[in-house]
Recover the amino acids of this structure.
């Protein structure tokens, strides 16, 4: 049997669009019931998966095998089955498009996202978009945030999809990579994609348009080929990830600026909440660690464990 290799670009749950190495797109189905060992998910195959397909007489493909994933990003399933939904796999970098306002992106949201991407071993770049709208005061606030996030080890960029500022730089960084592209609806994801690749005509403000046509708005991710060999996974309608595979005692690992000084805490099992001799609490007092970052840490730590930290069932 002849097996062709390809990458999953789109999935509707029962059909998958696979791009073959020769560039052809083939509609494919899964052969039988297909489960990956130890991974209980609502979608056994996700966008970004590398698969082997058998092309049948009618030209459609049958997915025969899935090659090991280097990583993946998941979110909670929309149903209550406790299963996870894989958003994308084999990702080189995660982009979080953030805006100071229009819409407001909270640092809490950024911090949760950064924890999730680190937990899944995917580097994060925070892209602050709509800088054309910022006045001097906004710019000051932004550079304050940027210095804090850069200090924590995350790359930050400023862009404007309207005047093109920073778009070339973003494109260069993303070239030859598989990129998971996220952010609040309205933050300018579609506009940035269009700005990076003018050939591309992704609907701006697409959500309301889909509504007016009475279409069911999709929450499935989709991969697009952009200039510079960028393979971009768009995540429309996916509001958050928030499901991680570690114990909450390990949370500080994913706040790099806290983790790097935690060896100076008096107790080696310090979780930096109210222990005496805690170097992290001291650093927050001295403003070496941003208070809002520490507050994000506290808030995540105190979350209902079921909701945020889950080590079973997927
Ligand atoms: P998405 O929901 O994240 O895909 O956001 P869209 O790309 O649809 O953009 C939402 C709105 O913000 C649209 O009205 C865009 O024209 C506008 N927008 C996007 N990027 C920018 C930007 O850099 N500057 C300004 N001023 N507006 C932007
Ligand atoms: Zn401590």
């Amino acid at each position: 049997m002849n097996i062709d290799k390809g990458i999953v670009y789109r999935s509707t749950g029962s059909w998958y669009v696979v791009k073959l190495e020769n560039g052809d797109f083939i509609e494919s189905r899964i052969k039988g019931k297909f489960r990956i060992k130890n991974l209980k998910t609502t979608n056994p195959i996700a966008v970004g998966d590398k698969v082997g397909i058998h092309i049948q007489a009618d030209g459609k493909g049958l997915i025969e095998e899935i090659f090991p994933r280097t990583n993946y990003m998941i979110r909670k399933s929309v149903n209550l089955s406790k299963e996870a939904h894989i958003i994308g796999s084999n990702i080189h970098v995660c982009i979080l498009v953030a805006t100071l306002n229009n819409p407001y992106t909270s640092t809490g949201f950024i911090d949760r996202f950064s924890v999730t991407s680190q937990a899944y071993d995917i580097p994060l770049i925070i892209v602050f978009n709509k800088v054309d709208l910022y006045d001097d005061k906004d710019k000051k606030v932004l550079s304050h945030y940027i210095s804090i996030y850069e200090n924590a080890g995350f790359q930050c960029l400023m862009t404007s999809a309207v005047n093109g500022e920073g778009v070339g730089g973003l494109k260069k960084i993303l070239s030859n990579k598989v990129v998971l592209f996220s952010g609040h609806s309205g933050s300018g994801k579609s506009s940035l994609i269009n700005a990076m690749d003018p050939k591309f005509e992704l609907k701006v403000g697409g959500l309301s348009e889909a509504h007016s046509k009475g279409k069911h708005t999709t929450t499935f991710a989709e991969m697009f080929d952009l200039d510079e060999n960028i393979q971009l996974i768009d995540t429309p309608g996916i509001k958050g990830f928030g499901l991680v595979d570690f114990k909450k005692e390990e949370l500080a690992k994913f706040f790099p600026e806290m983790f790097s000084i935690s060896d100076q805490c008096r107790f080696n099992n310090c979780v930096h909440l109210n222990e005496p001799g805690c170097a992290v609490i001291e650093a927050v007092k001295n403003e070496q660690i941003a208070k809002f970052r520490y507050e994000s840490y506290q808030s995540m730590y105190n979350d209902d464990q079921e909701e945020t930290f889950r080590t079973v069932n997927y």
In short: Residues 129-130, 132-133, 160-162, 183, 185-191, 204-205 surround guanosine-5'-diphosphate (ligand 1) (CB under 6 Å). The mean pLDDT is 86. The CA atoms of residues 108 and 295 lie 8 Å apart. The chain has nine helices and 13 strands.
